[in-house]
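Internal tracking record. Fields below are filled automatically when a chain is submitted to the structure queue. Please do not edit lines marked as system-generated. If the sequence contains nonstandard residues, flag them in the REMARKS field before resubmitting.
Queue: standard
Priority: normal
Entity type: single polypeptide chain
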Amino acid sequence: MVKFRHILFVRSGQPENVYGRFALEILRSEGLNGFEVVDLDTEPFPVLAEGDLAVLTRCFLRKAEMELLHQGVTAGARVVCIQPSWGLADRFGLKSRKQVLNPGWVRIGQGFPGAGCPIQTHRPIALYEAQDGVWARLAEAVDTEWKTGYGPAAVRGSVGQGEVVFFFYDLPAAVAAIRFGNPELASLLTSKHWGWTHAPDLFAGWADDRVVRLPQADFHGQFLAKVLTDISPYPLPRFWYYPRTAQRSAAVFQSDDDMSTWEQFTELSNSLLRHEGKATFYLMRKTLLTDAQVAELRSKGHTFAPHAFGVDGEEDLYFRFPEVLTDHTREFKERFGACSTSLQCHYAPWMGYMSWVPLHVQLGYRLLFAYFSSPQPYLNTFLCGSGRAMRFYDRDGTLYDCRQQPIITYDDSSIRERVTKEPEGLVGEFENLLMPAVERTHTAFGMLSHPVSFVTYSRPFIERCFDALHREGAPIFNGDEWTTFLDSREAVRITHRAGTDGGISCVVSNLEGPLPLMVPVEKGRAARVAIDGVKAAGEVHRRLEQDYLFVQLDGKPGKEICVDIG
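SYSTEM-GENERATED OUTPUT FOLLOWS
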């Protein structure tokens, strides 16, 4: 049986390729778990054949490697090239205009997620001539004023028996820029509000107000995934974002102690439980809760970690915070035992670009809520271009085993007046984000409410958000549940082989829980899917601008699942 390879090409030694490996994070976040990395600095360029699917990240190729790539596409391989060199583009008949649009915006074409409104890249778009009739335009390059006429941002063309797509911008670098902010603003005060630096300070003048309510980072990844689905010569299966097919969005909820009383914790807990949700609570060093009360809340499914406090001037923040976080974590474990793998520090301080991420990893934290949509005008927006979690990826190419989880909706003393006076308006803003998420974008929502705030002023707002999530079947996870699910989903692997009657056979491994498999419906006909030789029941749903047959998989440790798609 012929094995079809799914390859992500990187060239780790080239500075231009610094975001090459981040493309793998994007592919896996989109449920495309069959791609394996080939580093062209340490491995030879392989011979590509019909049925192979490859993504070439931004790098330079030798002439012989360009020829192998061209030969592979001609023979039937399907390849996506991200910000190709001018020489590679020329080899496929594209002529550089010897200009760039910097920074470029992208208007994704109809038929793709994110189509319509331009979205940011924070990166240059190389300008090329692409002959109509030879190259199909998938996206247009536009400028900061949204003017067109610059040419394509992405094109698709047939070459021999295969197909090739060129993205004229560095898509993984764009996703990182949108999600993690402007590194030039690291450790600077930009909000006109806070007296110490926060992660949102990285976004001043960075996230454009015209598109801040769009999950731009998600759109780039979904665009890439849909391109791969479209050019694949067989139905390309992928995994859904959530554990169940019916779940089209989700929330991950955290709550900061801030010296709340037991009664206040209980009221917030009861509201969550009525909505089938759970929280991760972060406890002050001198929390008012007793050990027995923490144990009772744990028995209801909530989890806990310290609410480390280290803001007492610049010296304390810069030099002593690592010691403070280390001490608070140790003290918490000594008193309460199990510590959540997620964290939000008191007052949410943040220094540097990602300077503190290695410290959090060292202490066992793997999901950080530090990035929140602030200052006040950005409440209920996607300041980071997403509500979904993704691993931190630094400018030197370091991937940290710790995820950024943006907070979209929250209460806080700094916005108490607005929450008190405008609960209906804020609920409307939240629903204006939630409904597109449920119907089209399927992003998630980081949420925060303090027990004391919930009880004294924010319940009309926060509880209505719970109502909306519950109504739409969106689960409310705590930080640990969310991290566990994301880890298990990412760990799943899928390999592809030629099947019978022109179909495809897949082997799914490392699946240890419920996860829907999505099989594209082609030409209006649902594929026939068999699981371990038995015809599988499924449901067809229109999602991400594609009809998919959803088949619920339920894995067991150590057991492989054979999926035949005909």
